[in-house]
Amino acid sequence: MRAPMHDLAFDRPEPGKWQSAALAAGMHLLLGLFLFYSVRWQTSKPAAVQVELVSRQPAVEAPARPAPPPEPVVEKPPAPVVEPPPPPPQPKPDIALKEPPKPKPVPKVEPKPAPKPVEKKPEPKVEKKPDPKPAPPDTRREQESADKMLKEALARESAESTVRQATQEADLRAKVAAEGARLKATQSWADRISAKVKGNIALPPGVSGKPEALVSIALLPDGSVVGEPKMKRSTGNAALDAAILRAIVRSSPLPKPDDASVFERNLDLKFRPLDE
Amino acid sequence: MNFSEDLSIISLILNASLLVKLVMGLLIGISFMSWYWIFRKFFAIRDARSRTDKFELEFWSGGDLNALFQSAANDRHNAGGMERIFEAGYREFTKLRARQNMDTATVVDGARRAMRATYQRELDGLESHLAFLASTGSVSPYIGLFGTVWGIMNAFRGLSNVGQATLAQVAPGIAEALVATAIGLFAAIPAVVAYNRFAHDIDRISIRWESFMEEFSNILQRQAR
């Protein structure tokens, strides 16, 4: 009696042995496919890290382009060598014409006084001309020699004036290059400031598009912000404006410029908080 | 951990260290077994419920007990749990009643004991392998976590040889390691859900069987007089 009962319990065909094995395999196949097609992240992740670097570089390069190539800097050494002899005031108007189109001529005018003392040279020459009068005997020879000297001087002058013009130009170009470098330094400084501030901006929700704010900041030489920064041009979103101002205050002290001469007490900075 | 640009799931698994691979293999095996048993138990329980429904309908439609017993005894392999309980009880009842000088209480008690034994056996068959699902649910997250911890340890140890530590150097190692936890959770979650569901279903079936045993004992007691 016991044996048949025992049989009863074990004889029953278990339903769906192979079916469940197939289903389990199918289940795992599905999951595997799902994982295979969905877990493709990170392939672009290194690129995302680079974006931060790339975004800063073009900003620095952009102002560098208007600045002329650094070749004129090489030409600069000959300039002082040639400068001492040439006295002519004639090229000056030439330079005056050239100056206005260039951005910042103020520092350029200063080097010019250097040639000025040389201007005295022609004066003695001019004095020499009347000289012959008191001494009549040698007048002809004197005059000839004076003429010769004058001609020579004139020829030299004209030759030198062209050279001077060239050097002046080179000088100018060097100035512009220096200006460009300065601009570059300022730009990189501004970039570093905005990068630091951007990191501190807590974006309010619902900001979209390309908001841009112009903020005026008063700085101490150590980079710390004095007083409250002022919003010169709003982004159009009051919450975002407030967030930018708060971020600037929080970022104090701001980074210092690499080149201390670039430092400005009052900075007007543009912020594009949504730009990467 | 080397620097892999392509972080698809395949490369994640292939780049993992040996131990993490072993853990993943173990977990995939466990997961497969647990799904296999989930499906098998699902079919078995659905089958048991439908057979119970069918037998209850037959039994309470007022047919002859002897005819019912005959059909149950002849078709053992296809009989459901409740049918077998009935068969065992009725068989014992007829045997005891055939003997002389047996009072009603003893006969019914004997039939009831026979029914209970079958009931236990049937329930045991139904509940088998549920423990596997339960332990899969509770243990496989730990196995996965072990693999992950090991993988992360390796990732950081590899980092110590590099001068400049960047996220990109640890990230692939950690991602590889986390795959182990993911597989562990994938094995555990369905197992836990299925275990709870099946335990509940089996409870309900066993209650139906038990109440049937009580009712059938009453019927036998009435017949024994």
Summed up, what is this model?
Chain A contains eleven helices and three strands, in the order ααααααααααββαβ. Chain A is mainly α.
Strand and helix layout:
The complex is a heterodimer of chains A (276) and B (225).
Chain A: H1 2-11, H2 17-38, H3 45-64, H4 71-75, H5 78-82, H6 91-98, H7 106-109, H8 116-119, H9 122-128, H10 139-200, E1 213-219, E2 225-233, H11 238-250, E3 266-271
Antiparallel strand pairs in A: 1-2, 1-3
Helix pairs in contact in A: 3-10, 10-11
Chain B: H1 9-15, H2 18-60, H3 65-74, H4 81-98, H5 104-127, H6 130-159, H7 167-224
Could you explain how this protein is built, in words?
The complex is a heterodimer of chains A (276) and B (225). Among the domains of chain A are: 71-186, no CATH class; 207-271, 2-Layer Sandwich (Fusion Protein Consisting Of Minor Coat Protein, Glycine Rich Linker, Tola, And A His Tag, Chain: A, Domain 2), CATH 3.30.1150. Chain A contains eleven helices and three strands; from the N terminus they run ααααααααααββαβ. Chain A has helices at 2-11, 17-38, 45-64, 71-75, 78-82, 91-98, 106-109, 116-119, 122-128, 139-200, 238-250, and strands spanning 213-219, 225-233, 266-271. Chain A has a three-stranded antiparallel β-sheet with strand order 2-1-3, covered by helices on one side. In chain A, a hairpin with a 5-residue loop joins strand 1 and strand 2. The longest helix of chain A has 62 residues, at 139-200. Mean pLDDT of chain A is 67; it is low at 1-10, 43-67, 72-83, 96-102 and 104-135. Chain B is mainly alpha-helical. Chain B has one domain (9-211). Chain B is 84% helix and 0% strand. Chain B has seven helices and no strands. In chain B, helix 2 (18-60) packs parallel to helix 7 (167-224). The longest helix of chain B is centred in the last third of the chain and has 58 residues, at 167-224. The N and C termini of chain B lie far apart (83 Å). Chain A binds chain B through residues 5, 7-9, 11-17, 19-21, 23-25, 27-28, 31-32, 35-36, 39-43, 45-46, 49, and chain B through 5-10, 12, 28, 31-32, 35-40, 42-44, 47, 76-77, 79, 84, 88, 117-118, 121-122, 125, 168, 171-172, 175, 186.
